[in-house]
């Protein structure tokens, strides 16, 4: 029986299908463009290759091609009788994610990797910031992610993907130098691993290395296909550093060409969350933001996320609606937010509404419920700095500048030296 490059037996007798599958696996795990095309080639070479169809479903999901994802998943389910136990469980995990059963999918992956830790495409579902652990909404999910990658790491040896996943977990639990060292090892093995470039940038952000980080990531992006999974989000990191350096022109160029609706080619959750975050962080830093940008983003959010449920998206949608003056849309989220952190999205939505009305005391009252548990809303620490800066700005507007500085110094010391907040520098 043939095997993938992680040593997992795969139910195909076609060497061509195996080779295409393995190429897709590498591209997918590295966040590079072309994974879906490679997986499609695998099932073209062997139409009965169940795992190949499941991989198509997974890659289509990650490029927002949901119709194809569902049909590929259906085909994988039909062919599952040809698969072995490892493949059946792998296919089950992907099917659960695609059908929106995140808690069940998480439990299935955690059980599956106990017996098949090197089933990377299944293990990947729980890894990374936007994975099933990252979006669990649970207290301690950053520590849980670290425990997860710590348990898998010994099974992977000198593997660039797992190194980058564990390095990411280290970074998000404050072990920045250890993260950076491991990420450099990953990049030495695969310089085009976008996950490693991404979290090397996070380590640089956490270390306050604005100039070096911006230069590194700008150079790395020069060879990164703009259709790739992380392109828009990496542009967001560049835009953030440009903002911190006072280079508004470069920031707006990154927004317009790589981050915002119309310019970005990535997943809707990245387009919404990254655009909302950079627009509001620009406002907090004192840059004027055209109200038309907020209205465009509010329309995009209403179109792409008409129902609540993805809490990280919902909180950014609420920000967009508040800043665009779209009261009905904001009220829908504030009144009915569901999802893994819906209980936090509701007060956050009310806070954004109060902020838009310059009711700073009202905003503070709502944020008090959110700030002790921001980890639960999802996203990276760099992304959740949106909330830290929002909170500090509300304090500042209330005339509590010392309290605003103290809040940053206690909660996010990396922002305290030169806060990207007009009036507090
Ligand atoms: Fe990031």
Automatic annotation (TrEMBL):
InterPro entries: TPR-like_helical_dom_sf (IPR011990), TTC38 (IPR033891). Keywords: Repeat, TPR repeat. Belongs to the TTC38 family. This is Tetratricopeptide repeat protein 38. The keyword Nucleotide-binding does not apply. It comes from the Bacteria.
């Amino acid at each position: 029986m043939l095997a993938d490059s992680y040593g997992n037996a795969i139910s195909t007798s076609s060497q061509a299908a195996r080779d295409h599958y393995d190429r897709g696996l590498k591209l997918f795990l590295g966040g590079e463009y072309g994974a879906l095309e490679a997986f499609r080639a695998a099932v073209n070479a062997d139409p009965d290759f169940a795992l190949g169809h499941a991989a198509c479903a997974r890659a289509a999901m990650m490029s927002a091609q949901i119709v194809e994802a569902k049909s590929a998943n259906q085909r994988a389910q039909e062919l599952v009788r040809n698969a072995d136990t490892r493949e059946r469980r792998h296919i089950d995990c992907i099917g659960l994610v695609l059908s929106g059963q995140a808690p069940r999918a998480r439990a299935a992956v955690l059980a599956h990797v106990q017996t098949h830790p090197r089933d990377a495409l299944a293990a990947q579902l729980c890894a990374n910031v936007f994975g099933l652990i990252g979006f669990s909404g649970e207290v301690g999910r950053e520590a849980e992610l670290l425990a997860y990658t710590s348990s898998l790491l010994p099974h992977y040896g000198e593997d660039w993907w797992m190194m980058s996943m564990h390095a990411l977990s280290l970074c998000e639990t404050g072990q920045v130098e250890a993260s950076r060292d491991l990420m450099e090892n990953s990049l030495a093995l695969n310089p085009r691993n976008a996950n490693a470039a991404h979290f090397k940038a996070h380590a640089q952000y956490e270390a306050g290395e604005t100039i070096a980080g911006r230069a590194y990531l700008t150079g790395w992006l020069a060879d990164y296909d703009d259709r790739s999974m992380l392109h828009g989000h990496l542009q967001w990191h560049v835009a953030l550093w440009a903002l911190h350096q006072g280079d508004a022109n470069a920031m707006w160029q990154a927004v317009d060409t790589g981050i915002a609706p119309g310019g970005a080619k990535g997943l809707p959750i990245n387009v919404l969350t990254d655009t909302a975050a950079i627009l509001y962080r620009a406002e907090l830093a004192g840059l004027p933001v055209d109200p038309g940008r907020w209205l465009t983003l509010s329309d995009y959010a209403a179109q792409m996320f008409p129902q609540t449920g993805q809490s990280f998206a919902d909180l950014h949608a609420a920000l967009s609606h508040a800043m665009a003056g779209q009261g009905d849309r904001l009220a829908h989220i504030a009144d009915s937010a569901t999802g893994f952190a819906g209980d936090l999205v509701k007060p956050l939505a009310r806070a954004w509404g109060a902020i838009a009305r310059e009711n700073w005391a009202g905003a503070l009252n709502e944020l008090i419920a959110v700030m002790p548990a921001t980890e639960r809303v999802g996203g990276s620490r760099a992304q959740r700095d949106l909330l830290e800066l929002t909170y500090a700005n509300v304090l500042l507007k209330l005339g509590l500048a010392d309290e605003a500085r103290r809040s940053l110094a206690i909660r996010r010391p990396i922002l305290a030296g030169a806060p990207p907040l007009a009036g507090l520098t």
